[in-house]
Write a structure and sequence with these properties.
heterodimer; A: about 190 residues; alpha+beta; Arc Repressor Mutant, subunit A; Glutaredoxin; 7 helices; elongated; B: about 575 residues; Ubiquitin-like (UB roll); Alpha-Beta Plaits; Rossmann fold; 3 domains; 7-stranded mixed beta sheet; 5-stranded mixed beta sheet
Chain lengths: ~190, ~575
Amino acid sequence: MTESTDAISALTVEHPSPGKKYYPPFQPTADLEKEAKEYVSMYPEGKELSAVLPIIHMIQGKFGYICPESMSWIAQQCKCTEIHVAGIVSFYPGIRTRCPGKWHIRVCHTIACALSGGEELIGYICEKLGIDPKELSGDEPMGISPDGLWSIEPVECLANCGFGPNLMVNDTLYSQMDKEKVDKLLAEYAEKA
Amino acid sequence: MSSQQEQLPKDAAAAEGKVNVQINGKWYRFPKGTRIADACNSVGIHVPCFCYHPKLSVAGSCRMCLVEQGMPPRLAPGATPTYNDDGYQTIQWMPRAVVACANTVAENMGIRTDGTVCREARRAVLEFLLTNHPLDCPICDQAGECKLQEYTADYGQPSHRFTEAKIKKGKNISIGPRVNLDQERCVLCRRCVRFMKEIVGEEILGVVGRGGHNAIACFPGKTLDSNYSMNVVDICPVGAMTSKDFRFKMRVWFLKSTPTIDTNCGTGTNIFIWSREQQIYRITPRQNDAVNSCWMPDNHRLNYKYINSEKRILTPLVKTDVGAPQRPGAWEPTLRAVSEQLRRCNPKQTAIIVSARLTNEELYLAGNLAQLLGISQLDIVPRSGEPDGMLICADRNPNTTGAKLILDKDGRTLDDIRLGIKNGKIRHLIVIGEDVTAEAAIPESHLSKLDYLLVIDHSETATTRAADVVLPGVTFAEKYGTMVNITGRLQRLNKAIEPLGASRADWDILRSLLQGSGGDMSLLTARAQSPMEILDEIAAQFPAFKGVSWAAVGNSGIPITETGETIPLIEREQTKQ
């Protein structure tokens, strides 16, 4: 019976993450609702369902991840059921149910980048930031540093294959990376924090 | 001249709004817009499907129904089509298979369900489905009626090439009060998701995860508690959705299914009773597009426990003296004593309360008995509740329409009978198939004032406890008969199990009473050996039943009268089409 209840309740488990201190907690404010309404109004009446994805992106951008409460809130905004939102959230690897660090590093490990050294970079960055590489397997591969400042996620193609290995810090792309460049980059960002 | 005689098949078909389709080398004609799967199935060529269900929207996701398809080749500019001796164009077969559920037939289309393309496609689909499917069959409730099992036997491969570890998912998840979910057994056809969304209108179920981790789930805190939830168990092609009531009770291949009707309300939902050796294990809906489509409510489905209950009365019970306890008696002496007693009763002081849960044949015999004994006070007990806007109607008696047609009674004089019993004008009462202390609201204290109370019923109630004589009748599962539902459709009850113990079918008991009460009724009725023969007699006497016979009613019933009532779920289904 225990494993059984898990399969369903796992959908709304609040995962602990040291990164939470860098993001505001989800609050369904009037402003947020207004913003969601704007997205909904972009679609014809009766097609509110289409707004689920843009609103998810909006929430993830603001709060770092999609928490269980926000799933219910999104369902309300889009006049759909929570299970529909949960289905979308669990489908896309880019939608997180765990809060990342302040600087979220996405390292490409698709073939071109992996061959040019991207795969090793992942291990290197993990070691440098004190992240357990075991966290990079499973349903939602993402490792968070104990101080919550950093998180790393191996991703598929960043669409810059000619200049691998590629990685992104939050929304900025960095190409032709190697260990030294990574050292410099991390130092740069550490200062920004 | 000759060209007119030799009209091309395509033109002949078009005149009927149909198209010619070649299936496995033979030509057939189908209405335009028919799905390939339906077309094949209608001519007896089975197309295996997981996700396709005729009452739900098309998903086309399981790919099990892949068939080889061909069309006449596209003509070069200026070319005219050529026809062979039979008037058809040659078919150019497509190299890849198409799904039969999401595509419709077209003129001169060719379908092959038995070629290499098709066989290979089905084998490959099954191989993929089985990569993560657990080896649960020995303990799975669906085993024996599982589509995955059937298709694997028909089209699968004997060996397993998948050596990787299977993906584990949730098992034995209670997703509702009556349904359990096993995510590993699921083939992701999403029939349950579509049923809840499209038929019930509650989007409780959904699909979560991606790829091999895809699983059916409900949101934590939400449960599948609709009164129609158990239909997902029926439509689930595999053992992913199982009924908590039926789980691990019986292997399905030991069960006998009897087509009959539900007697919990006036809709008369068509059902199968699944029984083995005098024991009923489950009830499932039976498709009838004029009554219940493919569905039935959970509370009706589960209301069968009383049939095999301890409360059943299995022998006649007789009170030998005033105040004496009821003692078991043998049928023949009891029937003789009852007949004698009935002849002695003053008909002016006697009333009969019959149940509208009885069949037409039984109501007819009860009417005859009243006539024979000269009893004019006879009525049914009306029973009503909230309609649910789906299949449950306000009338909770299954045969109110039949009682109106045959006895011309609808419960309006029940008040007079109740009053008569209260003020002592009625001294003798015959109750057939009712607990009159319930809906009829006759208190036990009033029943005890009666000189004589004869009860025919299948289970112990407050009324049978007060009776001088109890003749054990049977439940709807133990007898043949017909009933008329609220829309005026005459439907058949079939016997699933023999009467339990020494109980007898109610029509049989009533016939014995008619025979024993003498008089000079002519008495085909008394001679009738079966409800079928009694139905013939009803057909000869009542205009509404004119021309009706047991065989003509069939398992799907026939409309015999207009009542103006409709079934909301069926209305919705018809407007959708």
